[in-house]
Amino acid sequence: MMWKKLFAWLDERLGLNDLYKATLDRPEPKGNWWNTLGSASLFLFLLQGATGIFLSVYYTPSPDHAYDSIQYIMNGVAFGWLIRGIHHWGASLMVLVVFIHMLRVFVTASYKYPRELTWLIGVGLLLCTLGMGFTGYLLPWDQKAYWATTVATSIAGSVPWVGPFILRVLRGGTDLSALTLSRFFAAHIWMLPAALTGLIGVHLYLIIKHGESEFPGRDD
Amino acid sequence: MAGSHHISRRDFIKLTTAAVGTFIGAVVAVPAIAYLIDPALKSASTDAWVPLGKLAAFEIGKPAPASFTRSIVNGWEKTVNSYGVFVLRTSETETVVLSNKCTHLGCHVNWFADKQEYICPCHDAQFGINGQVLGGPPPRPLDRYSGDQVKVEDGILFIHFLGA
Asked: Which residue in B8, B35, B116 sits closest to A80, CA to CA?
């Protein structure tokens, strides 16, 4: 058959079967729903990425246009409400799922040898996820976004000695301004996603290398 | 079950998987594509009947300036443009409205009653009282509203503006 020939040709050059075995057909301990939360986090990350790319088609990160462009997405663009709705609720859900994923790893002691690095990278992933929530919250540029960011950056500014400097770095100056909005936007769509993508890559490599941990039994 | 008219278990699974897969694909693809092409589907109709003022205020045989503004909304961005015209009542019942935009490079022409000409300040283009080219670089007469592009309702003069 034509397709079998084509697949064999590609497999010989790409090693598709090996890739399939390593990623999707690897040996698993007894199935457990709690072990699916990592995949759920990955799915939510991809969903947020896809809907976020779509939102950037109409969103404009400037104080003059941010609010109006989102109003336009919600009321003027076909299915804009759906894309933004998924991005909005997906954000909350992702923080929740990532956090429960962390709890599960902690409770089942899966962070122990040889998976300490997987845990450490997971900490980075959790922080990046929270960073995505923090930077994304400002982008609608409404009253809630403005004051939430004012308060949160002020908290960061209360650190002894370096606080005022951290505040100026976060806000791009002393005040919450156009500079704050554009740097939060840059962090939200370029820097944090780039960091997340890299960390996810290593996280997945380590999971495939070490396999998933056994669920602790009665004797453990 | 060979020879049976029943569909085999394997074929049934194949068929339902394909059907459900197609449905899910469509549920994702239709909103995604509609979202992206949405602005292209909206027709921007800019034509409208624009009031220029009371007809009685314009003297017969004497061009008088009038102006109006039109706004265009693109997405969340609203642009307001001003337009200028000259209203010339050629008779008690006939009115011609000329755009004041020079057909050469778009400067605004002025009416000089002593010369009975519209003259463009940029390159000295000259137009006659009805908009015809008398001299200078313009390629065609001034844009005009006449006939059924002009109407009077309750004593107010309207022109049918087609857009910029």
From this structure: B35
Binary contact (B36, A54; C-beta < 8 A): yes
Same domain (yes/no): B89, B140 = yes
A80–B35: do the CB atoms touch at under 8 Å? yes
Domain count, chain B: 2
- The interface residues of chain A toward chain B in range 38-77, judged by CB-CB distance below 8 A, are 54, 57-58, 60, 65, 68-69, 71-72, 76-77
Query: For residue B31, what pLDDT is reported?
Result: 96
From residue B113, alpha-carbon distances to A10, B96, B118, B136 in Å are 83, 17, 9, 19
> In terms of residue numbers, what domain contains B16?
1-42
CATH code of residue B130: 2.102.10.10
Q: What share of chain A is helix, strand, coil (3-state, %, to 5)?
A: 75, 0, 25
CB atoms within 10 A of CB B30: 12
Stated pTM of the model: 0.83
Residues B129 and B105 in one domain: yes
- Read off the pLDDT of residues A75-128 as tens digits, 9 standing for 90 and up: 999 999 999 999 999 999 999 999 999 999 999 999 999 999 999 999 999 999
ipTM: 0.87
B131: its two tokens: 């908009």
